[in-house]
Design goal:
two-stranded antiparallel sheet, 11 strands, 7-stranded mixed beta sheet, 6 helices, about 260 residues, alpha+beta
Length: about 260
């Protein structure tokens, strides 16, 4: 899997942004850069709010030892972000500059300190999955579309109780079971625990939408704008008793898909 993923990477020198010279981004078509393009095909500045956020969503985290988080930690991180920005993200959107996006670093959780761009993992249950529409991060779908996955803490959770994780079209797109919302919704129907690994990203394009009694129209339901985006590995627990620290106890999504479709 790592070799396949590495083949999809390119190293870009972005000294003028929050990303360092050795930062790696998921690339499919060279015509769709990490900062994306508008729906009309116009360029997006690497240092604009949209450009910085899109680069965060296409950034591939370094290392192979993810920080283990729980869904509740994403609420803690949202509280931190609210304090950093000085606004309630359920009511106000914050635009970031190169400097202010760097404030999304070295945040404390019950499981240690994490920063945007870190490799993290969270276990939970798929509550719903669906393909995204045309987004600037993928150059208005010219580079494909993301798959939006809601991850809840229990098999009875709703989207409002959980977080968002995204499979992006630039990575592992040819692997069986990946980028298929029907497969993921089948895992939901089976009430199987999953382990999602990937980059920690703050999606300031939206509002927090955690109140099921007063949902925000057009906003993804979730308790935090912090998400795993992009997903770099996805595992399924068939035994019902898998340890997130022991990936060997889980079955990779591709293997699970092959096992249940042959």
């Amino acid at each position: 899997m790592k070799r396949r993923l590495a083949a999809a990477l390119v190293t870009l020198g972005l000294c003028a942004t929050a990303w360092g010279q050795d930062t790696q981004f998921a690339i499919d078509k060279k015509s769709c850069p990490p900062q994306g393009k508008t729906k009309s095909g116009a360029a997006i500045s690497k240092t604009s709010d949209d450009g910085l956020r899109n680069q965060a969503k296409r950034h591939l985290p370094a290392g192979n030892q993810p920080v283990t988080l729980e869904v509740v930690d994403f609420k803690t991180l949202q509280d931190d972000a609210n304090q950093i920005t000085g606004v309630d993200a359920a009511k106000t959107k914050t635009k970031f500059t190169v400097t202010t996006r760097l404030h999304l670093q070295h945040l404390n959780t019950a499981h240690g300190t994490v920063s945007e761009g870190d490799l993290v993992q969270v276990d939970g249950f798929v509550t719903k999955a669906h393909p995204e529409g045309s987004e600037s991060v993928n150059c208005a779908a010219a580079d494909g579309t993301d798959v939006h996955i809601s991850i809840g803490p229990t098999d009875l959770a709703t989207e409002f109780d959980g977080i968002v994780a995204e499979m992006i079209p630039q990575t592992l797109k040819k692997q069986p079971g990946w980028h298929d919302a029907n497969v993921l919704n089948g895992i939901h129907a089976a009430k199987l625990r999953v382990l999602v690994v990937g980059g920690l990203t703050y999606d300031n394009e939206h509002f927090v939408n955690a109140d099921e009694r007063h949902p925000k129209h057009g906003q993804p339901a979730r308790l935090s704008l912090w998400e795993i985006h992009p997903i770099t590995a996805f595992f399924v627990c068939e035994s019902g008793n898998c340890d997130p620290a022991q990936h060997s106890q889980w079955i990779a999504l591709t293997d699970w898909f092959r096992k249940h479709t042959t």
